[in-house]
Amino acid sequence: MPGQADRNAIEIRDVRKVFGSGENPVVALDTVSVPIRENEFFTLLGPSGCGKTTLLRLIAGFDFPTSGEILLYGRDIAPLPPYKRPVNTVFQSYALFPHMTVAQNIAFGLEMLGRPKAETDARVAEMLKLVRMEQLASRRTSQISGGQQQRVALARALAPQPKVLLLDEPLSALDYKLRKEMQIELKRLQHETGITFIFVTHDQEEALTMSDRIAVMSAGRVLQVGAPREIYDSPADRFVADFIGESNFLRAEMAGMNGARARARLASGVEIEARLPEGFSPGESVTVVVRPEHAQLVAADFDSSMPGTIENIVYLGTDTHFHLRLDGGEAFVVRRQNSPNAASTFEKGARVGILIGSTAAQILRD
Ligand code: ATP
C-alpha cells in the first residue's frame, strides 16, 4: 500500500537466542536484526536448523530472546504473553480440533477472546467465504482433505484479525500440485486481508514465488534481506548463491576493476567481465558466480568463450541441462530452454565453447 509501505510492523533488533548453558550451549540466533514492513509477505528462508522456527516462536511469545528486542509497531512486546500479542500462528500440523466442525474451529479463537456471539458468527461467515469453505461449514475437520484443513487453519488464525500472521512451513504436508495451488491462495489471502505475513520455509522456489521480501538465514544469522529478484540476481555471498537457484562457481583472479565492473581471469586463462560488489582489491582471489541459464553454448573456437567438453546432457521437459567439464578442470552447467523448433546440435562428448554475457557473472569473495 503506497505511503504505508515503509512502516515496520515488526522490528527484530540484535536478537540472540541461546539454548542451554554450561559446556554446550546452542546459539540458535546469533544477533539477528531485521525489519519487517507492514502489509508485506516476508519469508524466512534457510536450511533445517538455521533458526527460522526459533525466530517465529520469539515473535509469537512462546519463548524469549536471550538478548535483544522485538518491536511491534515500535513497542517492545517482551512484556506481552502470547495471547495478548496481536499475532497469530499457523502451524505445519494445522492443530485443528478433529471433533469440531469447520465453523466451530474457526470460531474457537474468537470465543476464547470473549467476543459477542453475533460478532463471532458474522466473522466466521466472512472467514468461510474468504477461504472458500462455505459449503463445508458443518463438516467435522476429521472429514475434510488436507488442503481443506489448511484453509480452515488459515481462517481460524485470521479470524481475530491479527496484525501479523506467522506461518511455519504451512504447506509442507501437501502434495506438489496442492502446494502450488495453496501458494497462490496464500498470496491472495495476504493481499485481500492486508495482514503482514511472516512465512517460514526451507524451499527456495516457494520463497521466490510468494514473497515480497526474503531473509536468507544460515546458522542463526541473516545473510541477506531483499526482494526475490534482488537475491537471485545479486546474491550477497556464496551460501546465498548456492542455496537460491543453481549456480556455477569459478575460481578467478581480479585482472582489472572499473567502478562496479571487473575483469576476472579464470583458471583457463580466459578473461570475462563481471559485476563487482564493493570492497574488492585488484589481484585478489575471488569466486565468479554464473547462473546456468545465463551461459550459452557456442562453437569450440568462438572468440572469448571458455573451452570445455560436454560430459552429460539431461533433458528436463522445458529445459535441457548440459553438464560440462571446463579445460581448467572445473564442472559447469549450462541450462537451455527447449524449443519445439530447434533441435540441439550439441552432443555428449563434444568440444564446445561457453559464452558468458557481460552482465551475467558476479564476483564473490572466495
Ligand atoms: P527446521 O527447518 O528443521 O524446522 P529451523 O531453521 O526452524 O529448522 P530451529 O528449530 O529454529 O531451526 O532450530 C535452530 C537451532 O536451535 C537448532 O540447532 C536446534 O537444534 C536448536 N534448538 C531449537 N530449539 C531448541 C531447544 N528447545 N533446546 C535446545 N536447542 C534447540
What's the topology here?
Blueprint: E1 8-19, E2 26-37, E3 41-45, H1 52-60, E4 67-72, E5 75-76, E6 87-90, H2 102-112, H3 117-130, H4 146-158, E7 164-168, H5 176-193, E8 196-201, H6 204-210, E9 213-218, E10 221-226, H7 228-233, H8 238-243, E11 248-258, E12 261-266, E13 271-275, E14 285-290, E15 295-299, E16 306-315, E17 319-326, E18 331-337, E19 351-356, E20 361-365
Parallel strand pairs: 3-8, 3-9, 6-7, 7-8
Antiparallel strand pairs: 1-2, 1-4, 4-5, 9-10, 11-12, 11-14, 12-13, 14-20, 15-19, 16-17, 16-19, 17-18
Helix pairs in contact: 2-3, 2-4, 3-4
The chain binds adenosine-5'-triphosphate (ATP).
Please provide a written account of the structure.
With 366 residues, the chain is of the alpha+beta class. It has 2 domains: 8-240, Rossmann fold; 249-365, Nucleic acid-binding proteins (OB fold (Dihydrolipoamide Acetyltransferase, E2P)), CATH 2.40.50.140. It contains 8 helices and 20 strands. A 6-stranded mixed β-sheet has the order 6-7-8-3-9-10, sandwiched between helices. The chain has a 5-stranded antiparallel β-sheet with strand order 13-12-11-14-20, with no helix packed on it. Strand 16 (306-315) and strand 17 form a beta hairpin. Helix 2 (102-112) runs parallel beside helix 4 (146-158). The longest helix is centred in the middle third of the chain and has 18 residues, at 176-193. The two termini are 40 Å apart. It binds adenosine-5'-triphosphate. Adenosine-5'-triphosphate binds at residues 19-20, 26, 28, 46, 48-54, 202.
